[in-house]
Amino acid sequence: MISKINWKAFLLPLILGIAIWLLTPFKPTDINTAAWHLFAIFVATIVACITKPLPMMATTLIGITIATLSGIFTMDEVTAGFGNSTAWMVAMCMFMAAGFIKSGLGKRIAYLFVKLFGKHTLGLAYALSAVDTVLAIGIPSNNARVNGIMYPIIDNLSHEMGSDPKKGTQRKLGSFLIFNEYEINNVTSGLFLTGLAGNMVALGLAKTQGITVSWLQWFAAASVPGILSLLVIPFVLYKVYPPEVKETPNAHAWADARLKEIGKMTLSEKIMLTTFVLAIGLWLVGTKIGIDATEVSFIAVVILLITGVLTTKDMLKESFAWNILVWLSVIMLMSQKLMTLGFFPWFSKTLGNALHGMSWLFVLIILFLAYFYLHYMFPSVSTQISALYAGFLSVAIGAGVPHTLAALMLAFCGSIYLSTTPYSAGPAALLSGTGYVSNKEWWQLSALIGVIFNVIWLGGGLLWTKVIGLW
């Protein structure tokens, strides 16, 4: 049986790609023909990732095949591109996330926090926020954290407290906790390099432009705006979108019952916890002893395989990990080639000259806000990063923004812009469809929290990067 293909979705990518290709005689003299042709293929590939005639993995494979037939790449270059360390790190972290869920450690951590801090509704929100924060260190999938761990717990707890959308009682507790989880998940996604696959995609693209950022550098820069957001968001939502139930004394008993139900900590949980702590330690100090972040993720997965916490069958089931390994490798291979052929340096220099005389700080602020609000047009975090990050970074560099600062600020934006819409990413689509928060409330609250995020991450975040010496 032949699968259905959305052939109409090929039209725009083909039109744009062919149009740019045919403009080769009119290209800037500073760009060679190979660079221009690859630019045409790159644009067509990225647009196809947005229109989605096929999944991103298939789309990028088509793009790289065309580039190879055009003589821009050799097959040796293409196959070597699948050894990209960033793409493998993302895949390995996804396998670690599978270990969290399979072992049951994620749920146990959540129940413990609810038991300890869940007596008051606001305290319960902070407790659940803390759970997401801990999980984000080792689970780079916001979908896995929300869909696999956080939402089922919040939903069950809400029902236990008499808050159920089907009965019209969602505002008792569930609405507040659900929307808080949505926004906190966006914060924790940006707090750690390993909190979101898109973070590693962004820094992989930055690496093609000669900018390298470690796990510790990321956390150092994100720590203050991230922690400030974790403190501010639950409190603001508690005030502007208050739950009807202010006290939750039953939460302690509910969580205690769940813990008794799952029993004592299993061997697989203990191994997962030990591996998780080891990975955190190596991410923090690994560069000082010659172990980079990708190697750490390999070490962790190997431990889980040797001990039986994960099996090769578990890994093969993680289709998203294998999917991102392919398309991210291809996108980064194209970006690296555009850098090598001189396209990005030309782009950066040209726009830098056009912005001559304008303060780089002002340029960075404009780019950050534009990058944030453009997410209203994108239903996927990875698609926007693949389409816009490299170009925005080139503009920033051309305007004189310190390179590491530019890479980090735009990458941070790639997490917090998930707060924009009900279709911003998988967690938004899931949580907005549960009935706990109405569509109108979702848009209104998202707009408000978006402003707060920009004040904290762009305003406070920039000041903090000054303190730690990034500019």
UniProtKB/TrEMBL annotation:
<feature type="transmembrane region" description="Helical">
    <location>
        <begin position="218"/>
        <end position="238"/>
    </location>
</feature>
<keyword id="KW-0472">Membrane</keyword>
<protein>
    <submittedName>
        <fullName>DASS family sodium-coupled anion symporter</fullName>
    </submittedName>
</protein>
<dbReference type="Pfam" id="PF00939">
    <property type="entry name" value="Na_sulph_symp"/>
</dbReference>
<dbReference type="InterPro" id="IPR001898">
    <property type="entry name" value="SLC13A/DASS"/>
</dbReference>
<keyword id="KW-0812">Transmembrane</keyword>
<feature type="transmembrane region" description="Helical">
    <location>
        <begin position="7"/>
        <end position="23"/>
    </location>
</feature>
<dbReference type="InterPro" id="IPR030676">
    <property type="entry name" value="CitT-rel"/>
</dbReference>
<feature type="transmembrane region" description="Helical">
    <location>
        <begin position="87"/>
        <end position="105"/>
    </location>
</feature>
<feature type="transmembrane region" description="Helical">
    <location>
        <begin position="35"/>
        <end position="51"/>
    </location>
</feature>
<feature type="transmembrane region" description="Helical">
    <location>
        <begin position="296"/>
        <end position="312"/>
    </location>
</feature>
<feature type="transmembrane region" description="Helical">
    <location>
        <begin position="442"/>
        <end position="464"/>
    </location>
</feature>
<feature type="transmembrane region" description="Helical">
    <location>
        <begin position="58"/>
        <end position="75"/>
    </location>
</feature>
<feature type="transmembrane region" description="Helical">
    <location>
        <begin position="388"/>
        <end position="418"/>
    </location>
</feature>
<feature type="transmembrane region" description="Helical">
    <location>
        <begin position="324"/>
        <end position="346"/>
    </location>
</feature>
<keyword id="KW-1133">Transmembrane helix</keyword>
<comment type="similarity">
    <text>Belongs to the SLC13A/DASS transporter (TC 2.A.47) family. DIT1 subfamily.</text>
</comment>
<feature type="transmembrane region" description="Helical">
    <location>
        <begin position="358"/>
        <end position="376"/>
    </location>
</feature>
<feature type="transmembrane region" description="Helical">
    <location>
        <begin position="271"/>
        <end position="290"/>
    </location>
</feature>
<feature type="transmembrane region" description="Helical">
    <location>
        <begin position="187"/>
        <end position="206"/>
    </location>
</feature>
